[in-house]
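N-acetyltransferase
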Amino acid sequence: MPMLRSRKAQDCHERAGVSDAAPALTARIRDGVGAIPPAEWDRLAGTDNPFVGHAFLTALEDSGSVGSGTGWQSLPITVEDAAGHLVGAMPAYAKGHSQGEYVFDHAWADAFERAGGNYYPKLQIAVPFTPATGPRLLVEDESHAAALLRAAEALCVQNGFSSAHATFIEPAQQALFADNGWLLRSDIQFHWTNRGYASFDEFLAVLTSRKRKDLRKERAAAQDGITIRHLVGDAIQPKHWDAFWLFYQDTGMRKWGTPYLTRAAFDLMGERLGDRLLLIMAFEDGEAIAGALNVIGGSALYGRYWGCIRNKPFLHFELCYYQAIDAAIARGLGRVEAGAQGGHKMARGYEPVETVSAHYLVDPGFRQAVADFLDAERRGVAADRELLAGRTPFKLGDR
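Predicted structure tokens:
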């Protein structure tokens, strides 16, 4: 990956598209989120979504999960007012590949390179390895969003990047990208929605009789001879992380070859996120055999990583889906986001929802080709989502 060109603050200011008639704003590219004081970053990030918080992002940086040799170069973009006050920020990364993103653009890369272009490096505005919806423009006021986006565009142009991509954008921010000329792309995830349930049985009551029986059978089979524990914060000890590391490695090697996170990442997340981590572990004869790591947000429970060293029927469903529902109900959280893909989640009460990414392509011809592709793809995704919505396990009138 080529080194980024140096630039003066004024150069960034002009290329961010901030006019002299507007209040003076300066866009800067920082050398990692760790270069920004935690209080300043978190004032913009808020507390609802833990993945855009300083603690999570710097855990990835400091553990070596992103950085040299990973293909993820942390380049957060910030915007300051004339007094040097931080008014906007975005987590951004120079990427030398398309791994760990969960919004697939390999076909775009192939097409652009067949036409003689270089697709990589590109700019990724995202939380690495985390297909969870959240804010991507961390702003004091929405009026500062355009300056962040112009700065991202300028970074691409100045450094020969083909494109910039913001993934898993929360619904409230999608229009900010579209209004600034970025192309929107839709996909589907499966989330569980808490409609005020007081218990798992109350949730089961809104399912069809057959599905209700199926879920009860699955839970009984998964829990047979198993002890399940929910560990939060300080209750997660080094021995638990050691066990979970083995689970994570097993899943990573089976699914994508090399696990994205280093062992140190789990220690740092445990230290920095504290009670926002929920580790659900299964024990058989006193031995930890499986686990699911969740992150607790202000309004959602996010299922992130799962793994096991001993196969047991339905244990994956139990730890990742049913125990997550139990945890969300107990905490009064509005939804469970259980990760990317997985149509099998529908039979467990998870429903299809739209996820949205936004894309800026530097080359006009490439941009038009992608725009045409997205028009057709968007119609297909909408039709799929409508079809799937009619196949949920809920009784009529209860979804």
